[in-house]
Amino acid sequence: xxxxxxxxxxxxxxxxxxxxxxxxxxxxxxxxxxxxxxxxxxxxxxxxxxxxxxxxxxxxxxxxxxxxxxxxxxxxxxxxxxxxxxxxxxxxxxxxxxxxxxxxxxxxxxxxxxxxxxxxxxxxxxxxxxxxxxxxxxxxxxxxxxxxxxxxxxxxxxxxxxxxxxxxxxxxxxxxxxxxxxxxxxxxxxxxxxxxxxxxxxxxxxxxxxxxxxxxxxxxxxxxxxxxxxxxxxxxxxxxxxxxxxxxxxxxxxxxxxxxxxxxxxxxxxxxxxxxxxxxxxxxxxxxxxxxxxxxxxxxxxxxxxxxxxxxxxxxxxxxxxxxxx
Amino acid sequence: xxxxxxxxxxxxxxxxxxxxxxxxxxxxxxxxxxxxxxxxxxxxxxxxxxxxxxxxxxxxxxxxxxxxxxxxxxxxxxxxxxxxxxxxxxxxxxxxxxxxxxxxxxxxxxxxxxxxxxxxxxxxxxxxxxxxxxxxxxxxxxxxxxxxxxxxxxxxxxxxxxxxxxxxxxxxxxxxxxxxxxxxxxxxxxxxxxxxxxxxxxxxxxxxxxxxxxxxxxxxxxxxxxxxxxxxxxxxxxxxxxxxxxxxxxxxxxxxxxxxxxxxxxxxxxxxxxxxxxxxxxxxxxxxxxxxxxxxxxxxxxxxxxxxxxxxxxxxxxxxxxxxxxxxxxxx
Lengths: 326, 332
Fold this sequence. Notes:
heterodimer, A: alpha/beta, 4-stranded antiparallel β-sheet, 11 helices, B: alpha/beta, 13 helices
């Protein structure tokens, strides 16, 4: 098999936790703690998990907005985890990010045209006329009229603003977009429009996505494979259909059954987890999930389960970090 | 025979004075809720669902928000014309409320126990010590472990799910006849959401109270509610018993909403059906049916004449000129 577009090897991003009057480091937040994943060209890897699981930190580390503590990020086989800002710059053309809230990520004092053109200027792409043509082309790609270029972000609705940030993110023709909760701030009727846009762009431009979200139904719809994250670690990682049809980790099973199904005739049999997600500053010993797991035994409290191959479908392994088979 | 109807809203119009003039955030809304049942109010941002709840509680931001017309009958009292002492007695007493973000609703500088005891002292005239004892019982009922210890903690010491449990304990401390829950689980993780929804359902069946559940999540509606009101741009688009609404949605907006959410059975990576355009702002609402500029069935009449709610079945009301034709069409 060819080199994956993106490969993470034992990636970790830790933050010091400061406390006391002198703000001395009093602990470590292990936000991302030894994650290995890969994204193939033109495909989508979905990353799901609840708040505090480290999924956003992982996304920001991949595009190097955060510096990893250890491990490596291989982009097209090249390790980018320690590149300087200067050496990272050419990579920014290949690797872009879309955030949850376009109201925050778009500078409201620039016109939409300027915002989309900015990355082209920074990277010295084309003449002014060529760039203007590219802006029109990008607006058209994301389903906005050419007249949008003259307006300001606040003149648009949330869904349209997300289209603007997508246009900006794809301006340089990246190969990978890291999307962090790109539809969760949008209304239901607008969410499906933006999901369709992501699918269209992938089909047209061969984009790959690392699609980070908490909504498993949304992630399932757009992803070729899914990784489930809990307290900084991957609990389960498999082909999408495999994971949804036959979830093997008790956490994934609980996540899937917790989704309220919009069908009143189907009362789901639900595993309701007790308690909340523990703090990543002081994670539980052994399996990080054992404090909420309905099947936890003594071994789970003492020994951390490694991500192991529980099954295989074609060339894709179904990985699960659990001592047992469920 | 005791009255079965607990809450009856008729012709409610709530307007806001803005720089651009007066806008009607809620425009002639009717619905009712029976004891022991859960009524869901669903719609997208700006549809008026939260303003409806604030109108019922008479907690509209002052002086911009005003109830312009209509009645809200609750246990024989019209809340629209009720005076402040009556409202004080009802709010937190006969009507309990929980909101999306418990951290903004709880007082950060008071201990949990005091906040629960406060409403008991105020509404039931119980003395402090007894009220705190009752507070322990309430915390236990809403599933908070070690309630005696929690009593002396502050809201910031609790997780989001625990804070929402505390809010529920406060709301239910005085045995309300009606619980109004405005997006109670939207800020919570999905596994915690499941816990809270189960708790609300359990407490409802224990107490026989009525629940008005406001949410944007049709999944939550399907699992929790007996009846549903679908709101769009300040008006009721459709209203029906929950099974009927999902089995036979008649308003093009309801259909569009139901079709656009990805289900676990939707073919992966297939294009999702969408509703064209976006929700109009209250300042530039279209004439006639407010959904006409996004509706695939709209014609001249829809652009001219506002459709009234008409009866389409047992308890099933729809505000669409063309519902009969649409009912005959097969959904894709």
